UniProtKB/TrEMBL annotation:
<keyword id="KW-0378">Hydrolase</keyword>
<dbReference type="Pfam" id="PF01261">
    <property type="entry name" value="AP_endonuc_2"/>
</dbReference>
<dbReference type="GO" id="GO:0003677">
    <property type="term" value="F:DNA binding"/>
</dbReference>
<keyword id="KW-0540">Nuclease</keyword>
<keyword id="KW-0255">Endonuclease</keyword>
<dbReference type="GO" id="GO:0003906">
    <property type="term" value="F:DNA-(apurinic or apyrimidinic site) endonuclease activity"/>
</dbReference>
<dbReference type="GO" id="GO:0006284">
    <property type="term" value="P:base-excision repair"/>
</dbReference>
<dbReference type="GO" id="GO:0008270">
    <property type="term" value="F:zinc ion binding"/>
</dbReference>
<feature type="domain" description="Xylose isomerase-like TIM barrel">
    <location>
        <begin position="25"/>
        <end position="262"/>
    </location>
</feature>
<dbReference type="InterPro" id="IPR001719">
    <property type="entry name" value="AP_endonuc_2"/>
</dbReference>
<protein>
    <submittedName>
        <fullName>AP endonuclease, family 2 protein</fullName>
    </submittedName>
</protein>
<dbReference type="InterPro" id="IPR013022">
    <property type="entry name" value="Xyl_isomerase-like_TIM-brl"/>
</dbReference>
<dbReference type="GO" id="GO:0008081">
    <property type="term" value="F:phosphoric diester hydrolase activity"/>
</dbReference>
<dbReference type="InterPro" id="IPR036237">
    <property type="entry name" value="Xyl_isomerase-like_sf"/>
</dbReference>
Length: 276
């Protein structure tokens, strides 16, 4: 089915007992379509645990994605940190794929003292072997570097798009709230439209039909993201974003990262479907 699906970043708060499977049940009960499994503090699942998750999500038609650990840095100075990042990205992607997830979100790293172009080259060269290994081993999952919210963190819009255009198996996670926080702009229909056009320029129109999107309310300073907020407490213009996504015929999964998780995920879904 064309169009956008909506889900939560992790297990909904209103889930009685917080397990991945209960979370999938709760997402379905709420009338949502998807859930991002949070490996952000570690890959908490072993391979045998993935089977029931995949079977349940298929049964309830809940689309899964996953988020890799926060502490990856493919531009680390220390060789062992790069190796650890590669191992964790591989392990997260493999586990997510066994769960039936089609996308793995990750943060490529930090510029540290490097120029953006030097950081870009290191990050590209260190991610590529992981993408190649996953493809060779036959795991059908897209690695999705995320547009970042902080100016110190690799991942402005064009860097992210260029990375995805260079490495087969990569597609972007567009966190529109992050980009608004990072730039202090990009909060209107025409600016959202520009972002989507940029994406299509780098990756082709087909990328608009296979999107992975993060949205939340957000608080920010000139340095970028401070913290996530609920949409009602934030200036983020989600209505014009949803309108723009609809007008461009975008399809894919929208994951809500607001602190209230399922409440804003439902607000986003209802708003999207109320657009005449
Ligand atoms: Zn993230």
């Amino acid at each position: 089915m064309a169009g956008l699906l909506f889900g939560t970043a992790g297990i909904p708060y209103s889930t009685p007992k917080h397990t991945t499977q209960n979370g999938i049940h709760r997402v379905a009960e709420l009338g949502l379509d998807g859930m991002e499994i949070e490996f952000v503090r570690g890959v908490y699942m072993k391979a045998p645990d993935t089977n029931p998750v995949r079977i349940l999500s298929e049964l309830l038609r809940i689309k899964l994605s996953a988020h890799a650990p926060y502490y990856l840095n493919f531009n680390a100075v220390e060789e062992n940190k790069v190796k650890m990042s590669q191992h964790l990205l591989y392990q997260s992607a493999k586990t997510a794929s066994l769960c039936g997830a089609g996308s793995l979100v990750f943060h490529p790293g930090f510029y540290l003292t490097d120029s953006p172009s030097a950081a870009y080259e290191a990050i590209r060269d260190n991610i590529r072997p992981v993408a190649e290994r996953l493809q060779k081993e036959g795991f059908p999952i897209s690695l999705r570097p995320e547009v970042s919210g902080k100016v110190t963190q690799f991942g402005d819009l064009k860097e992210t798009m260029a990375l995805c255009s260079e490495i087969p198996g990569l597609l972007p996670t567009i966190d529109f709230s992050h980009y608004h926080a990072r730039t202090g702009k990009f909060n209107s229909y025409s600016e959202f439209s520009f972002m989507l056009t940029t994406m299509a320029d780098y990756l082709g129109e087909s990328a608009l039909k296979n999107m992975h999107i993060h949205i939340s309310g957000i608080d920010y300073s000139p340095r970028g993201e401070r913290q996530h907020l609920n949409l009602a407490e934030s200036d983020f213009n989600y209505k014009e974003l949803l309108l723009c996504l609809r007008d461009k015929g975008c399809a894919g999964l929208v994951i809500c990262e607001s602190p209230n998780l399922e409440e804003d995920a439902l607000l986003l879904k209802e708003t999207y479907f109320s657009l005449a």
